[in-house]
C-alpha cells in the first residue's frame, strides 16, 4: 500500500473510532424501576454515553424528563409502552440493559420469580432481536441463570444469536465479595478484586477466595464469608421487608459492567469482568452458561478465562453450582420451547 493510501486508511480508522466514541446509545428496559432509575442516572453521568433511551411499561417519559435536566452531554429520551415506542428505544442501541421484572419478597428464592419474569424477558428479547440484533444485551432480571438462556433461545429462533453479545450481569456478586472481604481484612474494598464464578443464585455463586491472596481466611471464617456472598441478596430482601431487593448496589454494579463494555468497545485493552455467558468451560457436563472472568472487546466477549487453580473446597463448591445451573438453564430453554 502506498504511503498516501496508508495515511488515508489511518485517518478513516481514527474517524471511525472517534465517531464510535461519540455515538454510544444505551437503552434501559425497565428504566422506571428500583434498579432502572438509579442505573439510568449513573448512565447519564457516564461521559462515554451519547444517547440514553429509557423504556418502561410505566413512567419511562417521566423518568427521562427528570434525568434529562442533568447537565451532561448525552441526550435522554423516554418511551411509551407501545410496540413503536419499544422499537424506537432500541433502534441503534450499542448496549441494552434489562432490569425489567419483579423483585423478591422475604421467603422467596430467585427461582420463584420465574413464572412472572420469564415471559417479560422473552417478550423484551423478541423486541431486542428485531430492533437491535447487534447490541450487547445485559440481563439483570432474575432468575439470571434462567433468563439469560431465554434470551439466547429467542435470538436463536430469530436467527440473530451471537454468543459474544449476551451477558448475565453477575457484577453485584463481585462487588459484594470485595466489600465483605475488606470488612474482614480492614482493607480498602477498591483494592480487593475477588473473582466470583458460576451463576447468580445461592450455591451457584462461587467466590474464589484462594485467588485473592487472603490465605488466612480459612475454616469457619471462610465458610461464613462464602455463605454471606452466596446469600448476600437475602440480607437486602430481609432488610427491605417486602419492599423489594437490592436496587442501589445493583444499579452501581450494572453501571460498572456497562462502563467496562463501553471502555472495551472504545478500544481499551485488558478489560476483564466476571459475567454469565455461553461458555465452553462445562459444556461437556451439559452446562452451557457459566460465569467466569471474561475479557471484553469491541465484539463483546473477547476471551473466556478458565477458573485457574482451585482448592479442593472450591472444587466442591463448583460441583454444587454445576448441578443447580444445569437445571436452571434447562428451565429457561424449556420455557421458550413450550411458550415461544
Ligand atoms: P422493580 O419492580 O422496582 O422495577 C422493575 C421495573 O420493571 C418496573 O418499573 C416495571 O414497571 C418494569 N417492567 C415490568 N415489566 C416490564 C416490561 N414488560 N417492559 C418494561 N418494563 C417492565 O424491580 P427492581 O428492584 O428494579 O428489580 C428488577 C429485577 O432485577 C428483578 O427481577 C430483580 O430480582 C432483579 N435483580 C437482579 C440483580 C442481579 O444481580 N442480576 C440484582 C438485583 C435485582
Ligand atoms: C441480589 O443478588 O441482590 C439480586 O439477585 C436480588 C435478589 O433477589 O436477591
From TrEMBL:
Substrate binds at residues 104, 110, 142, 176. It is an enzyme of class 1 (oxidoreductase). One of its GO terms (molecular function) is L-malate dehydrogenase (NAD+) activity. It comes from the Eukaryota. Keywords: NAD, Oxidoreductase, Tricarboxylic acid cycle. InterPro entries: L-lactate/malate_DH, Lactate/malate_DH_C, Lactate/malate_DH_N, Lactate_DH/Glyco_Ohase_4_C, Malate_DH_AS, Malate_DH_type1, NAD(P)-bd_dom_sf. PANTHER family: MALATE AND LACTATE DEHYDROGENASE, MALATE DEHYDROGENASE, MITOCHONDRIAL. This is Malate dehydrogenase. It comes from Exophiala bonariae. The gene is MDH1.
Amino acid at each position: 500500500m502506498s504511503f498516501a493510501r496508508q495515511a488515508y486508511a489511518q485517518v478513516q480508522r481514527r474517524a471511525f473510532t472517534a465517531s464510535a466514541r461519540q455515538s454510544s446509545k444505551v437503552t434501559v428496559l425497565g428504566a422506571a424501576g428500583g434498579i432502572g432509575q438509579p442505573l439510568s442516572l449513573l448512565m447519564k453521568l457516564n461521559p462515554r454515553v451519547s444517547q440514553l433511551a429509557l423504556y418502561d411499561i410505566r413512567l419511562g417519559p417521566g423518568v427521562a424528563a427528570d434525568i434529562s435536566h442533568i447537565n451532561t452531554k448525552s441526550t435522554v429520551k423516554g418511551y411509551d409502552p407501545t410496540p413503536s415506542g419499544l422499537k424506537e428505544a432500541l433502534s441503534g442501541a450499542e448496549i441494552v440493559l434489562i432490569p425489567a421484572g419483579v423483585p423478591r419478597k422475604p421467603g422467596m428464592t430467585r427461582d420463584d420469580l420465574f413464572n412472572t419474569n420469564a415471559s417479560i424477558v422473552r417478550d423484551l428479547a423478541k423486541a431486542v432481536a428485531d430492533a437491535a440484533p447487534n447490541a450487547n444485551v445485559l440481563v439483570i432480571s432474575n432468575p439470571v441463570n434462567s433468563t439469560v438462556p431465554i434470551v439466547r433461545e429467542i435470538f436463536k429462533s430469530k436467527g440473530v444469536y451471537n454468543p459474544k453479545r449476551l451477558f448475565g450481569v453477575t457484577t453485584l456478586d463481585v462487588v459484594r465479595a470485595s466489600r465483605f472481604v475488606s470488612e474482614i481484612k480492614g482493607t480498602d474494598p477498591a483494592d480487593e478484586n475477588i473473582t466470583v464464578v458460576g451463576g447468580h443464585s445461592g450455591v451457584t455463586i462461587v467466590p474464589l477466595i484462594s485467588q485473592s491472596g487472603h490465605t488466612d481466611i480459612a475454616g469457619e471464617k471462610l465458610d461464613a464469608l462464602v455463605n454471606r456472598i452466596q446469600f448476600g441478596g437475602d440480607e437486602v430482601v430481609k432488610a427491605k421487608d417486602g419492599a423489594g431487593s437490592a436496587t442501589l448496589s445493583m444499579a452501581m454494579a450494572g453501571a460498572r459492567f456497562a462502563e467496562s463494555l463501553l471502555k472495551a468497545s472504545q478500544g481499551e485493552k485488558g478489560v476483564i469482568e466476571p459475567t454469565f455467558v455461553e461458555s465452553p468451560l462445562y459444556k461437556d457436563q451439559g452446562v452451557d452458561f457459566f460465569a467466569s472472568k471474561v475479557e471484553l472487546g469491541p465484539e463483546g466477549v473477547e476471551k473466556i478465562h478458565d477458573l485457574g487453580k482451585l482448592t479442593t473446597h472450591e472444587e466442591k463448591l463448583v460441583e454444587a453450582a454445576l448441578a443447580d445451573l444445569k437445571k436452571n438453564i434447562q428451565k429457561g430453554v424449556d420455557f421458550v420451547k413450550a411458550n415461544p
